[in-house]
Specification:
2 copies of one chain form a homodimer. Chain A is α/β, with parallel strands linked by helices. The first copy, chain A, contains 14 helices and 17 strands. The termini of chain A are far apart.
């Protein structure tokens, strides 16, 4: 029996879940591996937790724990791109320890730099839990499609947005009301902006794209949109088209340029993406000559995330090495960026019109002027002199759809800001 | 740049696909790896192939090639549980070479023995391509859920059955006609029995179950049913219930007993399993504390299978080691078997009845006598004194449903053999 010594920084739900998992684990025992927890650290030592931590060595300072020679692997579950999480991970790598983290912000912002340090020190840096929780997409991209040319990776990556959008659709409720309810129920944070403004999904997308394209991509290269402006009318209009609105992260490679976009999008209800509800995540990978892979599984939750952290511990314990991103960090490519304006899709454009003669003709003219051609247009029965106009365009560049919407917004008979969302067809 | 020398036995579509993939591969180059093909072998040297093999060293005998010291890795794409494939793999392992194979029959029948030999020799034996083609389910089970207690693994694993069953449904055609057409179109083998009788799916299921449960399971422990007896009436009746008939492999763990079953089953059309059409495979894994994972992707085809073989080559090239099944082959558990009779489901039972007074009452009595309770019963409008009766039972053991069907078959007014299929609810 091989004993691996682990210290764990951060004892929220995932940290507690990991402690219980390592405590019981029979499967690792069958593999001849025992994990011994030689240190724990968290912001608060004494608080109600689902596990008893009194038997573990306590550290007030995660950096001090990262430097403690007792541990072989340092597990970082503190969170945040900078601050103590980053300092502790750097300290642990500098001290020649393997690091396992579930911290998507840290890896999205500093992954390449930390991977380079790990490779220089000859240790592993692993983060399966940082994307899609328990769903093994990180290893899928790193190892499973290692021989392939990946052309795209897309995902439904944020449970809070899933919850809000599907509750709006099911209950016919407005965004603000559903958000408030989600916050009360604990499905959304007190400050929900990371989730609903797309930052969390963007962190995950940046990690997926780095792995998929062997490229150093960053948050700065990512077009990030959230769901705050999605109205109940948008959700209902999507339904009429047989579609759901989901927050989608897409990264694609086109002529050796890489483009990253997080945006709410219309997705056919029959599509696997549309099935991702609640904390379910779905990630698809398009690769040559393989074809399309889809991974679906729990993207959050104590058990799922702890299982992913523990899977990484298992790989390290079984001496499974290799660079963090498949290629050495210093060989991650610096690829030209495909601007989001060049993403080509059908677009869904919804306007609120003052219902006056000639308004619809002017809408059609504005679209034509922006060289956006209409695939379908629907004006449902309206009320009180207002009309909603729902347009599906033929495939065009994002820039064209946005220009058309911008021109429309300036028209006196267009009320408020038009909704412009890509339609993602399989 | 690290050069890894590979010899390839078997140059059908997958072998040819692998040669082109290794020839072009840029992604491995970025990882600092070059694969050099130092030997090829196949049944016939001179035949039309999509790649030119004249520049490679040729071996008439794969066993001789397996013994050739020039190669680091021996790739076996010959196929078949025994014969030259087995001899060559044993020879390669004995000679201290790593082995990568796409051969499900070989691994299902002899995997534990071959893994033990590989572990004794300190080399790797890998077979990602043996199950679900390019979909990384082998590594998902071995590494991704390494920390979890897996309770079930299920899959739609055979493209020929997918094709036949969905064509029956779409074209309203009989099994025999669709099979013939599939054979003409190259979607089914001249001898289709491995596919349509469930043997191919059973091979894959045995491999999945071994990995999922760290257990030495075998074909002998697997209940295997095929789709030969599925009629157009069955397919239509399933549709009326909002379901599709698919050939499903299921392995589950119940009170430390492991049960394996391959059977056609009714699956709700909204279920991810029902979406698997053509060569698409879907595998789901239920694991504690993780939850449910689903993997979907191409289960066959030159590109997808070659990509999976190459992914294994990549792992070996990057020095990624570890026992074949996660646990050492000698530690694979010898678990008691959960007999298929104990599998609990709702069952679909369809009978052709001679339409005579009292027949339906007798059916209901026979079911009651077998202690099978009816959830729903439908008798569609029939013709010429015959009636089809379609029954959905409440959850019961397979034995009870089979007993009920057996008792019914003996009734003089029941024509032919009743159809009995489990209904798989999410």
């Amino acid at each position: 029996m091989k004993t691996i010594k682990v210290s764990i920084a951060g004892l929220g739900v995932v940290g507690s879940g990991l402690l219980s998992l390592l405590d019981q684990n029979q499967r690792f025992t069958r593999q001849g591996i025992t994990f011994e927890v030689v240190g724990v650290s968290a912001r608060t030592r004494h608080r109600e937790r689902p596990v008893d931590i009194s038997t573990y060595s306590w550290f007030d300072d995660p950096v001090e724990m990262a430097n403690d020679p007792a541990a072989d692997i340092f597990v970082e579950l503190i969170g945040g791109a900078d601050g103590p999480a980053k300092s502790a991970v750097i300290a642990a790598l500098e001290a020649g320890k393997h690091v396992v983290t579930a911290n998507k912000a840290l890896i999205a912002e500093h992954g390449a730099q930390l991977a380079a340090l790990a490779e220089q020190k000859g240790v592993s840096l692993k983060f399966e839990a940082a994307v899609a929780g328990g769903t093994p997409v990180v290893s899928g991209l790193r190892d499973g499609v290692a021989a392939c040319h990946v052309t795209a990776v897309s995902g439904i990556l944020n449970g809070t947005c899933n919850y809000i959008l599907s509750t709006m659709a099911e209950k016919g409720a407005d965004f603000d009301d559903v958000l408030l309810e989600a916050q009360k129920a604990g499905f959304a944070e007190a400050d929900p902006s990371f989730d609903i403004d797309g930052v969390d999904a963007a962190h995950k997308l940046v990690i997926l794209a780095s792995l998929a394209f062997d490229a150093a991509v960053s948050m700065q290269n990512t077009s990030i949109g959230g769901i705050r402006h999605i109205t109940l009318e948008d959700v209902r209009a999507a339904r009429r088209l047989g579609m759901s609105i989901k927050l989608l992260g897409e990264a694609k490679m086109q002529e050796e340029r890489v483009g990253l976009r997080v945006t709410p999008a219309l997705i056919p209800q029959a599509d696997p993406f549309a099935k991702a509800s609640g904390s379910q995540n779905v990630v698809t990978v398009d690769a040559n000559p393989l074809g399309r892979l889809a991974f679906q599984g729990p993207g959050a939750g104590a058990g799922a995330t702890a299982a992913a952290v523990a899977a990484d511990l298992g790989l390290i314990a079984r001496n499974i090495k290799g660079p963090t991103y498949g290629v050495a960090a210093e060989d991650l490519r610096d690829l030209p960026i495909l601007p989001v304006e060049d993403f080509e899709n059908s677009y869904f454009i919804r306007l609120n019109l003052q219902d006056e003669p000639g308004a619809l003709a002017a809408v059609a003219e504005a679209l034509a002027a922006a060289r956006v051609s209409i695939e379908s247009l629907y004006q449902p029965p309206g009320d009180e002199g207002q009309a909603s106009v729902e347009i599906v365009t033929h495939i065009c560049k994002a820039a064209a759809a946005q220009n058309a919407a911008g021109a429309l917004e300036k028209q006196p008979f267009v009320l408020g800001r038009p909704t412009v969302l890509p339609i993602i067809l399989p």
